[in-house]
């Protein structure tokens, strides 16, 4: 079984260097075998903590590695190769990701490294089946040094990670977009991606769907932001059925961060469900606990919305 797979041996060797192994197995080839067996025999069903620990042992992983867990063809995914070659640094951290690594449900490990003129201006390799084919796409912010950011979807084809679709690049260097949520927002049975184009400049909320291998924009609205420039907190948004109509909605902030704005679709068209003034600017990652939305505020308090 081990010989029939085609794992990324270089990645496994690097993982082995950091693996926690028993003292009676000091030889490097034994450590490699242990890591390979872990991938082959159970990480697809491992809990989130185990997956995070494996990624944290990866010497190529980002310092603040975030692991996405999947239940389809991809068991887990994370970003690798921190690089300073693109100096936008919107999160206040002096690196971006130069590559992507996934662990498939079969045990195979795949790695993709970008060409030097690109980075993943992101921290999360999101997993979602955008085209409904039963396999997950990996959704990330792909940035060109010359043309700025785009939303990109990668997939596994013939044992390789390949770019399946992307939105147009913004068009200028040092221009970014921030994903806001993934759900079937318009109720057509297919997952959509919400994002904010240039959350520090034009501040436009957009919804995109994957159709015939291309990203198609299905809605947009102005005066929205989900990130403060220089902040490590990128999840100033949340997805839930806030109006109880059976469809997923998106909660995020106004352009001045002082209002909570909630959007949803009705009969295929985007509408604003509500706009609520906050006691202070929203600054931290949104959190949902059961039926309560929690927003950290600049005054140190937390705003709560029950729905």
Quick check: average pLDDT?
88
- The radius of gyration computed from the alpha-carbon positions, rounded to a whole number of angstroms, is 20 Å
Based on Cα principal axes, name the global outline. globular
Ends distance: 50 Å
Assigned CATH class of the largest domain: Mainly Beta
The H/E string reads HHHEEEEEEEEEEEEEEEEEEEEE
In percent, how helical is the residue content? Answer: 10-25%
Q: What is the CATH architecture term of the largest domain? A: Beta Barrel
Structural category: mainly beta
Give the total of beta strands.
21
Q: Supply the number of structural domains.
A: 2
Instruction: Give the number of helices.
Output: 3
Oligomerization category of the chains in this entry: single chain
- In the CATH hierarchy, the third-tier topology of the largest domain is known as Lipocalin
Strand content: 35-45%
Summarize the main sheet: 5 strands, antiparallel
Low-confidence stretches: 1-9, 15-45
Give a topology summary.
Elements: H1 9-18, H2 28-41, H3 48-56, E1 68-69, E2 74-83, E3 96-104, E4 109-113, E5 118-120, E6 126-128, E7 137-144, E8 148-157, E9 160-166, E10 177-183, E11 192-197, E12 204-211, E13 214-221, E14 224-225, E15 238-240, E16 249-254, E17 259-266, E18 269-277, E19 287-289, E20 292-296, E21 302-306
Helix pairs in contact: 1-2
Structure overview:
- By secondary structure, this protein is mainly beta.
- It folds into two domains: 44-175, Lipocalin (Beta Barrel), CATH 2.40.128; 177-306, Beta Barrel (Lipocalin).
- It contains three helices and 21 strands.
- It has helices at residues 9-18, 28-41, 48-56, and strands at residues 68-69, 74-83, 96-104, 109-113, 118-120, 126-128, 137-144, 148-157, 160-166, 177-183, 192-197, 204-211, 214-221, 224-225, 238-240, 249-254, 259-266, 269-277, 287-289, 292-296, 302-306.
- The strands form five sheets. Strands 5, 6, 7, 8 and 9 form a five-stranded antiparallel sheet that branches. Strands 14, 15, 16, 17 and 18 form a five-stranded antiparallel sheet that branches.
- Helix 1 packs across helix 2.
- The longest helix has 14 residues, at 28-41.
- Residues 1-9 and 15-45 have low confidence and may be disordered.
């Amino acid at each position: 079984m081990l010989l029939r797979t085609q794992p990324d041996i270089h990645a496994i060797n690097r993982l082995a260097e950091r693996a926690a192994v028993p003292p009676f197995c000091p030889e490097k080839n034994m450590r490699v075998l242990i890591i390979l067996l872990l991938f082959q025999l159970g990480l697809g069903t491992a809990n989130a903590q185990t997956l995070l620990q494996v990624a944290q042992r990866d010497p190529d992983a980002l310092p603040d590695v975030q692991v996405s867990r999947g239940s389809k063809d991809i068991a887990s995914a994370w970003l690798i190769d921190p690089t300073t070659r693109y100096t936008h640094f919107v999160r206040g951290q002096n690196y971006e990701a130069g590559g992507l690594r996934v662990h498939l449900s079969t045990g195979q490990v795949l790695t993709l490294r970008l060409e030097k003129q690109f980075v993943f201006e992101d921290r999360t390799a999101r997993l979602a089946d955008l085209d409904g084919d039963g396999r997950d796409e990996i959704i990330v912010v792909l940035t060109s040094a010359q043309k700025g950011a785009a939303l990109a979807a990668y997939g596994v084809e013939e044992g390789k990670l390949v770019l399946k679709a992307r939105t147009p690049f913004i068009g200028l260097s040092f221009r970014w977009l921030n994903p806001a949520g993934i759900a079937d927002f318009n109720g057509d049975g297919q997952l959509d991606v919400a994002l904010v184009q240039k959350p520090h400049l034009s501040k436009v909320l957009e919804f995109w769907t994957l159709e015939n291998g291309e990203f198609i924009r299905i809605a947009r609205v102005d005066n929205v932001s989900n990130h403060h420039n220089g902040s490590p907190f990128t999840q100033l948004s949340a997805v839930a059925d806030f109006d109880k109509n059976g469809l997923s909605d998106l909660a995020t902030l106004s352009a001045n961060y002082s209002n909570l704005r909630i959007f949803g679709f009705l009969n295929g068209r985007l509408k604003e469900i509500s706009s609520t003034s906050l006691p202070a600017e929203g600054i931290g990652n949104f959190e949902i606990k059961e039926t309560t939305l929690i927003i950290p505020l600049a005054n140190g308090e937390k705003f709560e919305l029950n729905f």
